[in-house]
Structure formats: structure tokens, C-alpha cells
């Protein structure tokens, strides 16, 4: 123990000495994301025509209008979305932009604006306590903002603004700004809130980034060390630990795409500052380049420009968010990957940094190439083995994506939706996920925070497209319990026949095994792909099983008669999200094929054809019950219900078809083409006979889950020999002559 203590102490002393030595040479400013060398190149670029010059002049026009207005630094009063909250957000953004303008134009008016605002904050900050709208039970209240997360964001931007105008300040001004605002904020966010600063979570990421960058600017090497390795420099928390724990080896962030996007900004910004100040740390090479992988993963987790809305996600967020713009810009500066230019072009934003200049120059030269979106399984957890998030894509018959979610809980922002799925086609969401119940920064809606319905509905299992057992959510809705368990990804394969994946979980419900196989299967003869879903439930006791499909569009038709409630509506249940669903109708289709068709706003029809045995009830629901403040969107679903069963297999295929054009007044192909859907099991092989539009297909899935299984098999079907070498193969059994 003594030897370990002495070794740790020596390491800390050597690190601090090395940092202090390197810091002593950092008299030059700016020294964070933008450096002196960057500024020289940027000043030359704004004199030439091109995207960078255009972006500069656009920002200069905006900043000139902003600095002409009186400086307002109000006493904090409002929660998220309120005037003072938004004012302080605008202030740090305006300070940063004005700082950039000062560096590029060398005009004193821009530096004076930032200086005067910082001095106003220096007068205000010592006079205020914790924010009046802080949550009573919250452990991370702010002073300028209701939560310290926003205070950390304020520091990340403000310390860069200060760095950009540092050389214009007198020693007295530097002293006041540092001692009365910047240092107090940095100490408040670190030593003042150790539970947040040391936390391995996006709140901790923002805090460590702000404090660490402040350390570089104000020559505080100890702050940098604490930001990197925890307040006690043990490595149990801090920025490096966050890189170790929050990302999988492939760069997937455990809270999902929405928070991966949000967390990218502090990760990338602080990493860029580290790289500029201490390149010997090789921060972008850490964990085999996990940060650069995280940027590409964030892109991959999008469809039609929007992020897949899993967990607590706001569905309107996409690749044009400022965080991913910054990430793509830095990544291109390091890699010059032409696919990143394709994303940058779609983002339509050039940021005024050295890397932003590289992006602008490359786009001016038309060096971009299409970003290579792919079908891929992103392992979850720091080891990549805590389940996965699976993306299947197809370009056959249009741009399609199927998202399969056998991932971990995603901490407090995670939803109880093990083995759920979403489906997209022709730039629209078809089988949907609710995302978060929140009106971001709309103060009238619960202060812009997550609504109570986020817990009572959006997080609950029934809000998602997966099995609900006995009208209770996965893990009984217990986040701490859910965080201890993740599904097992048994396999994923993408090839010429399409993509297929299988996953299972045994802990979501006691004594119940849930196992799902999803495939996005290419049918080239029909010029389209279909989504195949096989969900197996095996349990020790008998249960009620509900499998919802939340769809986007207008219900058009069904192959069975629905008993519709036209006079009055009742909630489907009492809790676990069921209390928010109006029961609009129900039916029990006869044994065979049960079809439900809806029309999406993209003008395409979608039919789910299910293989039923006469014991399934279809419940048609609309969201909005027990919602006195109209907080929930009125979305629709149908739920397949089976009662008193211990083992059941849900089988269905989702088929896009047809074209509806109200402008030109025509409708084509409004009815399903599925004629036959049969499923048989031969040992580990699942054989699906799918007949569509006269074409008969044999879809074969190898479910062998033994380690290092030999996937090459010979088998017979209808007395004919066949073979499979891999997880998925498709045979055309005829030439389409059977109508």
C-alpha cells in the first residue's frame, strides 16, 4: 500500500510539474480551439471569396446587430425557457461570437463588448446564491441557471470568449474578471459540486470541459489535471474516465444518439483544447481513436438528417445541430475524410475556426463524396458487450432503415423498451418511437423540463414496439435494476440478401425469456425490401402478452372487422402507461393472415401482415387519456394481445407498397401484395415461405447460437435440397408465374 501511495504521489507531482512547465510557455492567446496560427490563416481567408468568407460576413452582420444592443446581465430568476435563462444563454453565445470577430477583424468594438459583459458578470456573480428555481431535491443546482449543467455550458463558451479577447485587457480587468467570475464559477462547478464534477455522465463531461479549459487559459495546471482525472486525481472520475466508460469501443454513447449528440460538444471542444495545448497526450488517439469513432457513430445513428429517437430524445434533433457541426469540423480537420464533407455540406454551416477553414476550402473545391452509411451493430457498454444498437439499411426500392434496440438501459435517460424496433422508409418514420415527453425550453410546459408524462408514459414499455408482460414495464420500471441488466446480442449479419439480427433478454421479467429476430430482407424481383419480425416468448408461468406497433399515418384498412368504440372511450389500463391509451376498437381475427394497412404522409402504404392462430386480440389505441394538460401527442397504435399463455411466437412482415398522390389525384397499389406467410423450424433453421405478387420466396435464417458455430448447413424443403452459409439467405422458388 505504501509503495502504491508513493508511486501515485510521485506520478501526480511529475504530472503537475510537467503541466506547469508546459503552461509557462503559454503566454500566447488564443490557445483553446482557435490558435494564433489558425487566426493568421483565417484572416487571410476572409479576404478571398468562398464559403469561409461568406460565413464570416454573415456572422459579422449578426454580431454587429447584437453588440449595438444594451448589455443585459439580469439577476437569475427563471427556469428553462424563461427570460433570464434564455438571456444568459444568449450572452455566452454572443460573447463567443464577438470574440471570434475580434480575432478576425482586430476591431476593438468586439473585444469591448465581451469585456463589458464579463465585467457585468463579475459584478453580479458575487451577489447571488443558488438559483431560485432549482429543484428542491436536485444535487446539482446552478447560480446563473436552475441546474449546474447550464452553468458548465456557460463556462465552456465564456472561457473561449475570454481567451479570444485576453490580449486586449488591462491587468486590472483581467484580475477582476478572473477573481470575481471565472475562477468562482470554475471552483463552484468542481470543488463546490464534487458529485457532479466526478460523475461519469454528460453533466460531468460539461463540467470537466469547462474547468479544464479554464485551467489552460488561466494557467491553472492543477485544474486541468483534476478535470482529466477526478478531483483527487485518482482516475475514478474525470474526462479520461468518461472516455473509458461512456463510449463503447465503436464509439456508441450509452445514453443513445440524442445525448451522444449533446455530449459531443464538450468532448470534442475540450479534446481540441488538450490537443492544441498538450499534443503529447495524443487525446484523439486515446482508446484507439474513440472520439473520432464517436463522431462517425453519431452520424450513422441518423436517418434523413434526424437522429434515431431512442431514450429521452426530442425527435426534431438532427445532424445540423451545433454539436455535430463542431464534431464533423474537428474530425475533418484531423482526417480529411471526404464523406465528412458530404455531412458538412448537408449541415450548411461553416464554423469560424481553423478546422472550419479546412472544411470550407475543401467544399469550395468539391472534394466531398457521399457519406458511406452502412448496416452495423454498435456494441453498447464500455466493453461493447452490454447489448447493442443495430441499424439495418437498404436502398432497394427507396432509402429504408430498421433500428433494433437490444441495448443497455442508458442510465437515467433510458427507456424500458428492451428489444424494441423502429422502421423508416422514403425519408419518413413508419413504425415509430415516442421519444421524450418534453417541450424543450417552453416554460409553460413544466418549465421546459421533462414532463411528468415522460415517466408515466414515454419511458414505459407499452410506449414502444416490444413485448409487455402482464401490463407491467420491463424491470417493473426500476431504473437501478434495469441498469444492471442488458440484452444479449446473439448475432448480426449484413450481406447481399439483407440484414438480420437476433437478441434476447431473460431479466426484463422474472421467469420470462424474450427473444426477437428482425430482418430487413431484399427482394430484388419485386424491387423492394420487407421487414420480417419473429418474436418468441417462453416463460415458466402463464401471462398476458401485449405486442404494440406504434405507426405514423392514417389507418386505411384491415382484413378483419374491428368493433369500434364510437360513443365513448375508456383508458386501456390503470398504470404503466396503459392509463394514457384510449381503447378505440378491438377485434379477434380468425386463424391465418391478419392485415393492418396505413397511409404515411410520404404517400406510401404500409401493411403489417401477421400470422395468427385465432387466439390474438388486436386492440386499436390512441394516445391522450389521463392527460389533463394536453402534454401528449395523439399518436396511434395497434396491440396484439394473447392471454393465459406461457409460450408464444409473434410473426409478421411489414411491406411498403403503392403510391398516393392527392395533387394529381391518383392512387396505385393500395392493397397488400402478401399472399402467403408460413414459418417452419428445422432445428436451428427458421424457414419462412413468403409469397408476394406471385413470387414465392424461401427466407432462411440460421439461429445457431453456439460459440464459433459452423453456419454452413444443408437442408431440404418440399423435398428439395438447399443450403445456407451464414445467417440469412433467400431463395426464389418460382419465377413469378403464380398469381
Automatic annotation (TrEMBL):
Which locations, inside or outside the cell, does it occupy? Answer: Periplasm
Q: Which GO terms describe its cellular component?
A: periplasmic space
Q: Which InterPro entries match?
A: Alginate_lyase_dom, Chondroitin_lyas, Hepar_II_III_C
Using the record, list the residue span of the signal peptide; answer none if the entry has no such feature. Answer: 1-27
Record key words, sorted: Lyase, Periplasm, Signal
Superkingdom, taxonomy of origin: Bacteria
Name of protein: Heparinase II/III family protein
**Source organism (scientific name):** Neptunicella marina
Amino acid at each position: 500500500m505504501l509503495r502504491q501511495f508513493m508511486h501515485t504521489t510521485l506520478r501526480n507531482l511529475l504530472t503537475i510539474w510537467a503541466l506547469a512547465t508546459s503552461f509557462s510557455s503559454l503566454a500566447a492567446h488564443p490557445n483553446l480551439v482557435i490558435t494564433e496560427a489558425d487566426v493568421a490563416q483565417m484572416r487571410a481567408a476572409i479576404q478571398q471569396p468562398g464559403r469561409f468568407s461568406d460565413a464570416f460576413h454573415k456572422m459579422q452582420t449578426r454580431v454587429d446587430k447584437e453588440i449595438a444592443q444594451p448589455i443585459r446581465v439580469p439577476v437569475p430568476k427563471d427556469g428553462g425557457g424563461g427570460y433570464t435563462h434564455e438571456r444568459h444563454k444568449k450572452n455566452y453565445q454572443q460573447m463567443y461570437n464577438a470574440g471570434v470577430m475580434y480575432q478576425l477583424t482586430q476591431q476593438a468594438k468586439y473585444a469591448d463588448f465581451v469585456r463589458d459583459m464579463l465585467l457585468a458578470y463579475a459584478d453580479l456573480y458575487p451577489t447571488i446564491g443558488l438559483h431560485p428555481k432549482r429543484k428542491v431535491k436536485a444535487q446539482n443546482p446552478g447560480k446563473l441557471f436552475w441546474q449546474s449543467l447550464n452553468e458548465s455550458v456557460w463556462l465552456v463558451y465564456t472561457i473561449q470568449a475570454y481567451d479570444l479577447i485576453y490580449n486586449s485587457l488591462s491587468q486590472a480587468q483581467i484580475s477582476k474578471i478572473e477573481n470575481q467570475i471565472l475562477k468562482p464559477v470554475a471552483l463552484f462547478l468542481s470543488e463546490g459540486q464534487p458529485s457532479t464534477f466526478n460523475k461519469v455522465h454528460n453533466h460531468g463531461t460539461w463540467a470537466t470541459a469547462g474547468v479544464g479549459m479554464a485551467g489552460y487559459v488561466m494557467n491553472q495546471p492543477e485544474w486541468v489535471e483534476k478535470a482529466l482525472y477526478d478531483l483527487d486525481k485518482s482516475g475514478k472520475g474525470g474526462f479520461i474516465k468518461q472516455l473509458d466508460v461512456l463510449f463503447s469501443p465503436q464509439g456508441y454513447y450509452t445514453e443513445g444518439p440524442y445525448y451522444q449528440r449533446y455530449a459531443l460538444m464538450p468532448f470534442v471542444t475540450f479534446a481540441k483544447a488538450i490537443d492544441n495545448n498538450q499534443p503529447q497526450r495524443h487525446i484523439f488517439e486515446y482508446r484507439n481513436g474513440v472520439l473520432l469513432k464517436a463522431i462517425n457513430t453519431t452520424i450513422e445513428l441518423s436517418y434523413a438528417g434526424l437522429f434515431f429517437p431512442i431514450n429521452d430524445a426530442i425527435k426534431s434533433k438532427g445532424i445540423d445541430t451545433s454539436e455535430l457541426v463542431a464534431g464533423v469540423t474537428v474530425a475533418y480537420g484531423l482526417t480529411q475524410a471526404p464523406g465528412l464533407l458530404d455531412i458538412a455540406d448537408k449541415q450548411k454551416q461553416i464554423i469560424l475556426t481553423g478546422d472550419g477553414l479546412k472544411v470550407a476550402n475543401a467544399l469550395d473545391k468539391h472534394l466531398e463524396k457521399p457519406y458511406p452509411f452502412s448496416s452495423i451493430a454498435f456494441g453498447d457498454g464500455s466493453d461493447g458487450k452490454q447489448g447493442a444498437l443495430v441499424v439495418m439499411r437498404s436502398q432497394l426500392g427507396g432509402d429504408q432503415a430498421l433500428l433494433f434496440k437490444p441495448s443497455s438501459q442508458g442510465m437515467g435517460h433510458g427507456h424500458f423498451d428492451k428489444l424494441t424496433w423502429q422502421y423508416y422508409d422514403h425519408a419518413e418514420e413508419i413504425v415509430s418511437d415516442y421519444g421524450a415527453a418534453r417541450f424543450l425550453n417552453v416554460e409553460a410546459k413544466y418549465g421546459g423540463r421533462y414532463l411528468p408524462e415522460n415517466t408515466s408514459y414515454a419511458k414505459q414499455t407499452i410506449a414502444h414496439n416490444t413485448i409487455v408482460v402482464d401490463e407491467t414495464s420491463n424491470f417493473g420500471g426500476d431504473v437501478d435494476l434495469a441498469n444492471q441488466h442488458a440484452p444479449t446480442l446473439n448475432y448480426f449479419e449484413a450481406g447481399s440478401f439483407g440484414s438480420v439480427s437476433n437478441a434476447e433478454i431473460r431479466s426484463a421479467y422474472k421467469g420470462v425469456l424474450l427473444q426477437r429476430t428482425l430482418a430487413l430482407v431484399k427482394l430484388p424481383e419485386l424491387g423492394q425490401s420487407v421487414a420480417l419480425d419473429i418474436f418468441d416468448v417462453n416463460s415458466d408461468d402463464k401471462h398476458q402478452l401485449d405486442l404494440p406497433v406504434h405507426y405514423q399515418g392514417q389507418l386505411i384498412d384491415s382484413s378483419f372487422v374491428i368493433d369500434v368504440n364510437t360513443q365513448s372511450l375508456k383508458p386501456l389500463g390503470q398504470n404503466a402507461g396503459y392509463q394514457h391509451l384510449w381503447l378505440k376498437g378491438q377485434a379477434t381475427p380468425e386463424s391465418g393472415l391478419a392485415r393492418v394497412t396505413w397511409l404515411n404522409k410520404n404517400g406510401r402504404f404500409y401493411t403489417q401482415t401477421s400470422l395468427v392462430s385465432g387466439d390474438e386480440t388486436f386492440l386499436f389505441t390512441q394516445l391522450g387519456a389521463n392527460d389533463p394538460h394536453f402534454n401528449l401527442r395523439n399518436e396511434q397504435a395497434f396491440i396484439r394481445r394473447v392471454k393465459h399463455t406461457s409460450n408464444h411466437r409473434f410473426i409478421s412482415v411489414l411491406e411498403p407498397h403503392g403510391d398516393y398522390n392527392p395533387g394529381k389525384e391518383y392512387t396505385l397499389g393500395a392493397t397488400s401484395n402478401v399472399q402467403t406467410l408460413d414459418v417452419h423450424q428445422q432445428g436451428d433453421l427458421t424457414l419462412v415461405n413468403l409469397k408476394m405478387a406471385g413470387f414465392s420466396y424461401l427466407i432462411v435464417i440460421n439461429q445457431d447460437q453456439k460459440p464459433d458455430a459452423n453456419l454452413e448447413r444443408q437442408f431440404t424443403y418440399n423435398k428439395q435440397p438447399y443450403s445456407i452459409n451464414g445467417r440469412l439467405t433467400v431463395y426464389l422458388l418460382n419465377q413469378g408465374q403464380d398469381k
